[in-house]
């Protein structure tokens, strides 16, 4: 039986710790594609597409001639076939396996839109159960395909699709868990995304075990069994209901005042707003009754004053809760889509083509490629360490902030008080998001510059920047959506952003084909184009600066209106 929200709240630390571990080993493991690719080649997936090279006859002077049939001295050249663990490898195999990676990575992001809509309505429990089961099935399918790769290589497409779907279910459902941690929500979102991004270390770790001689099939079957443990942990600990955001629910206040039995289901900050409104109503008495209140009483309604105030003054603020379509067409969301699309394409292309880029630099030395692939895999753990940095930036000084209404009341209640004015919470969130996105895009541009330099040791710096940017961009995007939009729309908007960016990232397959075909493996001009595209990422922080100034003007106007309102109230009371 599923636990209640109150029970889940008591278990939130256990759920958060296990979610980090589960994300690390069972979410976006496809991001470690470079290591998985080497293991799939060693197991012979799509090796039947490769054919041993034939003897090639060329003139002794090294020039091929087709214009005449003059007899020249010729020599016989034999090209040694490239084999991995006894299986042939070739460009056709790389292209087919990269296509499978494109399908899996696409589902890793594109499936988030329907997932977000379902999760916002039904909660994360069922999706997490489905995701862990899908991940387990994907491991079994890869193992089955490895038993007979000549006939079952096609299973890798279905397995990677299930792996991407299951991994995103695990990641996406864990992003709602930080709602139970109040002002630390952005930090915990960053921690969840950091563990998601660090899951790229899983396949490099498995490759180390594989290199010690452990059977590839045995490794995958054990991994599938471990995914079953995730299923049971979710079954016994995750509630059916969605986790409400801190603005929508205060667990302590709801439990403490539940004996009052309000009919209007008011909790948290709404409760205090009600108390303030009713207190003013009772203290001033009939002098503050407006026309709507008088009409309600004259009609014979048997309502106490507090209930009238609830109906009159606690109407929903439509401006504070925009509709889903208003959120979709807001400038912040549209610019975030542009930022995420170009960042996702930049990162996904590098992951998919990294082995080929390294081979181009070392003239096909597979030993060096294996070494640098392992270094890249180990560095993925940096995501777990660096992603909370962005979360900390997103939560910077939020504890010192107040809501606009509280700020106005404190300022007007003690006009002679010269204490430092507290920051407005919403404005501070926008400032923090501006810093986070500006810093992230600077790192992305630096990554693009290092990719242009064909120096092998310098690629370690590229690995580090790639890892940090991947953790930062997702954490910053999740923190921005949590700060600007209602919590009931978080899943849907995040899913929409992931779907659009995944569709745009499909361009990585044509770019890969261009690099391997006309450019003959040289990634220079592709990297130049992607570097220019990265400059679009500065549009979002520039707009956020303008948006912050607009909020400040609106806040000053609200404070001025509050002064006039309280002044008129005091005159009416006298």
Can you tell me about this structure?
The chain has 574 residues and is mostly helical. The radius of gyration is 29 Å and the shape is globular. The protein starts with a helix and ends with a helix. α3 (33-42) packs parallel to α10 (202-211), α9 packs antiparallel against α19 and α17 packs antiparallel against α25. It has helices at residues 5-10, 12-26, 33-42, 91-110, 112-122, 125-147, 149-152, 155-174, 185-198, 202-211, 216-237, 251-256, 268-284, 291-298, 305-313, 324-328, 331-362, 366-379, 382-394, 404-413, 425-452, 458-484, 490-505, 508-516, 524-534, 539-573; strands spanning 56-59, 74-77, 83-84, 87-88, 401-402, 423-424. The model is unreliable at 56-78, 250-319 and 405-418 (pLDDT under 50). The protein has a two-stranded antiparallel ribbon with strand order 1-2.
Summarize model confidence as the mean pLDDT. Answer: 76
Looking at the chains present, what oligomeric state does this protein adopt?
single chain
Q: Show unreliable segments.
A: 56-78, 250-319, 405-418
Q: Indicate the radius of gyration in whole angstroms.
A: 29 Å
Quote the distance from N terminus to C terminus: 60 Å
* Biggest sheet overview: 2 strands, antiparallel
Side-by-side strand order of the widest sheet = 1-2
Molecular shape: globular
Helix content: 55-70%
Instruction: Give the tally of β-strands.
Output: 6
Percent range for β-strand residues:
under 5%
The helix tally amounts to: 26
> Which structural category fits the helices and strands?
mainly alpha
């Amino acid at each position: 039986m599923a636990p209640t929200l109150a029970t889940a709240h008591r278990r939130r630390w256990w759920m958060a710790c296990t979610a980090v571990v589960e994300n690390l080993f069972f979410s976006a493991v496809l991001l470690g594609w470079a290591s998985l690719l080497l293991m799939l080649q060693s197991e012979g997936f799509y090796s039947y597409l490769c054919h041993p090279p034939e003897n090639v006859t060329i003139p002794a002077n090294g020039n091929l001639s087709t214009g005449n049939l003059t007899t020249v001295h010729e020599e016989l050249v034999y090209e040694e076939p490239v084999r991995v663990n006894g299986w042939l490898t070739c460009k056709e195999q790389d292209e087919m396996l990269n296509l499978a990676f494109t399908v899996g990575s696409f589902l890793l992001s594109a499936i988030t839109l329907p997932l977000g809509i379902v999760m916002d309505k039904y909660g994360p429990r069922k999706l997490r159960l489905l995701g862990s089961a899908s991940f387990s099935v994907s491991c079994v399918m890869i193992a089955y395909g490895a038993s007979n790769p000549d006939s079952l290589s096609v299973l890798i497409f279905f397995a990677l699709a299930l792996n991407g779907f299951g991994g995103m279910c695990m990641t996406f459902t864990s992003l709602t868990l930080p709602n139970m941690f109040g002002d630390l929500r952005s930090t915990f979102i960053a921690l969840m995304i950091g563990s998601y991004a660090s899951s790229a270390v899983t396949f490099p770790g498995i490759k180390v075990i594989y290199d010690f001689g452990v059977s590839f099939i045995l490794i995958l079957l054990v991994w599938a069994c471990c995914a079953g443990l995730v299923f049971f942990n979710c079954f016994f600990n995750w509630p059916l209901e969605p986790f409400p955001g801190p603005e929508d629910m205060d667990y302590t206040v709801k439990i403490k005042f539940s004996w009052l039995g309000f009919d209007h289901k008011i909790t948290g900050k709404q409760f205090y707003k009600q108390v303030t409104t009713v207190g003013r109503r009772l203290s001033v008495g009939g002098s503050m009754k407006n026309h709507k209140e008088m009409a309600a009483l004259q009609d014979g309604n048997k309502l106490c004053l507090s209930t009238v105030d609830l109906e009159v003054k606690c109407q929903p603020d439509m401006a504070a809760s925009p509709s889903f379509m208003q959120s979709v067409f807001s400038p912040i969301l549209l610019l975030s889509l542009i930022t995420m699309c170009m960042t996702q394409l930049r990162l996904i292309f590098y992951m998919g083509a990294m082995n080929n880029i390294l081979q181009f630099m070392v003239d096909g030395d597979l030993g060096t490629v294996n070494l640098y692939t392992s270094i890249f895999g180990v560095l993925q753990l940096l995501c777990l360490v660096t992603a909370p940095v962005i979360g900390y930036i997103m939560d910077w000084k939020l504890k010192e902030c107040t809501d606009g209404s509280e700020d106005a009341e404190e300022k007007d209640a003690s006009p002679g008080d010269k204490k430092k004015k507290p920051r407005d919470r919403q404005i501070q969130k926008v400032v923090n998001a501006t810093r986070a996105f500006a810093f992230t895009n600077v790192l992305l541009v630096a990554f693009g510059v290092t990719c242009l330099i064909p120096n092998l040791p310098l690629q370690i710096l590229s690995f580090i920047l790639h890892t940090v940017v991947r953790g930062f961009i997702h954490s910053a995007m999740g923190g921005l959506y949590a700060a600007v939009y209602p919590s009931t729309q978080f899943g849907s908007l995040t899913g929409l952003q992931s779907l659009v960016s995944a569709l745009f990232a499909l361009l990585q397959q044509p770019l890969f084909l261009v690099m391997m075909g006309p450019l003959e493996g040289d990634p220079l001009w592709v990297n130049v184009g992607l570097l220019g595209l990265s400059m679009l990422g500065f549009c979002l922080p520039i707009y956020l600066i303008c948006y912050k100034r607009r909020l400040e003007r609106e806040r000053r106007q609200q404070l001025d209106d509050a002064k006039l309102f309280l002044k008129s109230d005091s005159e009416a009371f006298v």
